[in-house]
Design brief:
There is one protein chain. By secondary structure, the protein is α/β, with parallel strands linked by helices. It contains 14 helices and 14 strands. The strands form 3 sheets. Strands 3-2-1-4-5-6-10-11 form an 8-stranded mixed beta sheet, sandwiched between helices. Helix 5 packs parallel to helix 6 and helix 5 runs parallel beside helix 14. The termini are far apart.
Length: 412
């Protein structure tokens, strides 16, 4: 390949980074013997390295991702992560390919009908990037012991009911592994993130106002601030720490106080959150994936959605019959553009988390394709104050325990 110093130096100048190895990361990697990126990979991933840097690409290179499910949304997630250059992808799916799968998936065709979905998709995924190690698991993910998840850097679960998601989320927490859940319902969908405790860096131009090392919200605080000079400008690197909640707790948590602080803001909250909670409750009660179009099922789902809407303290007029009807009609369908959008959003968030750059999803993203809106809600339990002082800002409260220097932030 000749002298490699020129392309390496060029990338270092473009990204403002040193290329000498990896820095320590809060994210545990599946392979303890991480490998630095090669010259061939630098050439292959040149454009994205200039976007997020050599060190972030090296972390991606050593990432071992577990993807549960291989339907249309998972197709998009796998495509984006494999093209980004992750080290390894393990796909778990115990279902067989059916004719219904051919409508929105692009890794399978008619010849795969009757074959396992994970095994059928792997050859096409491999063509996207031969450098990525691929593995297929054809048994149910629920048969795996809790220690199974410790071999992975991060876990993504798609198209599963809340009970299964909660089990996987708990196993990931035991292994200290970040967890994502996602699903689409026709024009609608969601992405949920539980990163447990995640540290990330925000880069911005240095301002006249000094950065304070203090809590920003109930879940996020600034823990460090440094500077660097890039292209003649002084850039500030602000390190923040974010804490997360499990999906089962988020599902029973209230909306952020900011969204409930006025009637206008309550009116802007999407009724999709009430329908999603109602769907999860329906699945728990009836033990079937989706309500049928029978009068009894429609009545039960409407009752559940109304109850969830009231629990969230939202105006009754925002849960319209038209929206309920549209949501029910979309259940069980997959629409390629919606899967592409949510799959792209989730994959980009995973890349940011692995690289330790950028604000991750905190913690529930809801997508309404008919309105082209994708609000994010931070859903966390509320605890009674223990002791300490309350810090109020932007509709959030923080409890500071201990001395001001090195204080601990807890939700109240």
């Amino acid at each position: 390949m000749g002298d490699l110093s020129e392309p390496l130096d060029g990338l270092a100048a473009a990204t403002g980074e040193s290329t000498n190895g990896l820095t320590s990361s809060e994210l545990a990697l599946g392979d303890s013997q991480s490998q630095t990126i090669s010259a061939d990979e630098i050439a292959l991933y040149d454009r994205q390295i200039r976007l997020w840097g050599v060190r972030a690409q090296e972390k991606l290179r050593n990432a071992n991702i577990l993807l549960v499910g291989m339907k249309a949304l998972a197709n998009e997630i796998a495509k984006n992560l494999v093209l980004a250059g992750i080290g390894s992808l393990t796909v778990v799916d115990d279902q067989l390919v059916t004719e219904d799968d051919l409508g929105a998936q692009f890794f399978i065709s008619e010849q795969h009908i009757g074959l396992n979905r994970a095994e059928a998709a792997l050859p096409q995924i491999q063509k996207l990037n031969p450098r990525v190690a691929l593995h297929a698991v054809t048994s149910s993910i629920l048969l795996q012991p809790p220690e199974y998840y410790s071999a992975f850097s991060l876990v993504i679960a798609t198209d599963l009911p809340l009970a299964s998601l909660s089990t996987l989320n708990s196993c990931c927490r035991l292994s200290l592994r970040p967890f994502y859940a996602a699903e689409t319902f026709g024009f609608y969908g969601y992405v949920f993130a539980d990163l447990i405790k995640h540290t990330f860096v925000i880069e911005r131009e240095m301002s006249n106002v000094s950065t304070q090392l203090k809590p920003e919200t109930t879940t996020r605080r600034v823990i460090a601030s440094t500077t660097k000079r890039e292209n003649g400008k002084l850039i500030e690197l602000v390190t923040k720490e974010e804490i997360y909640s499990q999906i089962v707790l988020a599902n029973s948590s209230p909306l952020p106080q900011f969204d409930l602080s006025s009637r206008r803001r309550k009116m802007n909250v999407t009724p999709l959150i009430s329908c999603l909670r109602a769907l999860w409750e329906y699945q728990s009660l009836v033990q079937t994936p989706f309500p049928t179009h029978s009068h009894a099922d429609i009545k039960l789902f409407t009752q559940l959605a109304t109850e969830k809407h009231k629990e969230l303290q939202l105006p009754t007029e925002t849960l319209r019959a038209e929206f309920l009807r549209a949501f029910l009609q979309n259940l069980g369908s997959e629409i390629s553009p919606v899967c592409a959008f949510l799959g792209g959003q989730l994959a980009q968030d995973v890349i940011n988390v692995i690289g330790g750059k950028g604000q991750p999803i905190q913690n529930l993203l809801l997508f309404d394709g008919e309105e082209s809106k994708g609000p994010v809600y931070a859903l966390h339990p509320i605890f009674a104050p223990l002791q300490g002082e309350t810090i109020t800002g932007n509709g959030t409260d923080l409890l500071r325990v201990g001395p001001a220097n090195g204080s601990t932030v807890m939700m109240i």
